[in-house]
Amino acid sequence: MSRIVRSSRKVVSIISRSSYERTPDVVARMLLGKLLVCECSGERLAGRIVEVEAYFGTEDPAAHAYVGRTERNAVLFGPPGMAYVYFIYGMYYCLNVACEPDGHAGCVLIRALEPVEGLETMAKFRKLPPHPKPQLLTSGPGRLCQALNITRAAHNGLDVTNKSSCLRIEDDGHRPEEILVTPRIGIRHAAELQARFLIDGNKFVSGSR
To answer: Alpha-carbon distance 206 to 19, whole Å?
Structure first.
């Protein structure tokens, strides 16, 4: 069951750990429409998840877990519902959430958000002028980590199912009307696999719509 953590206009709950114990494709669909929340210096930054990709652990050539457990990817083999943050191109962080039962690697990459709360602060973290086009804030895995100030040092291994965590995923009852499934993008291995999930028609998704 999900745990209620606050209420305002809607009842909002934290997604339970058991919800992440399923396969990455099932978890990916479940996460669409949920709120990714990061509390930074007392401010709540939040965006609605509109695009994700599933990675299937040691059986997936495109997954970080494909090489087996290492110091870098150990979070993927631990309890589900933990944040896995990695650094790419010497410039960007990317946020994933571990899934599958404890000891079995799998994850979902958060690719894009529709910004909901803290847009001015997101723009500052993105080093953009005030009131930029909202798509410039969180459309893309690197952009959303910049906008929410997510880093490997501060957030890797955090429990997103813990209501006290500064990084968590909430459910406010929103449900996408239609989900589109496509091949994953920006990868070389297993690129044909239909494992990218997005809210159809949402203008905040990254890459090809």
So the answer is: 26
C-beta neighbour count of 26 within 10 angstroms:
15
d(CA 148, CA 20): 22
At residue 90, the 3 state secondary structure works out as coil
Tens digit of each residue's pLDDT (9 = 90 or more) over 105-147: 999 999 999 999 999 999 999 999 989 999 999 999 999 999 9
The pTM score is 0.93
* CA distances in angstroms from 42 to 39, 55, 113, 118, 179, listed in the order given: 6, 33, 21, 11, 34
Measure the CA–CA gap between 159 and 138, rounded to whole angstroms. 22
Tell me the per-residue pLDDT of 148-186, one tens digit each, with 9 for 90 and over: 999 999 999 999 999 999 999 999 999 999 999 999 999
Q: Does CATH number 3.10.300.10 belong to domain 3-199?
A: yes
Query: Where are the domains positioned within the chain?
Result: 3-199
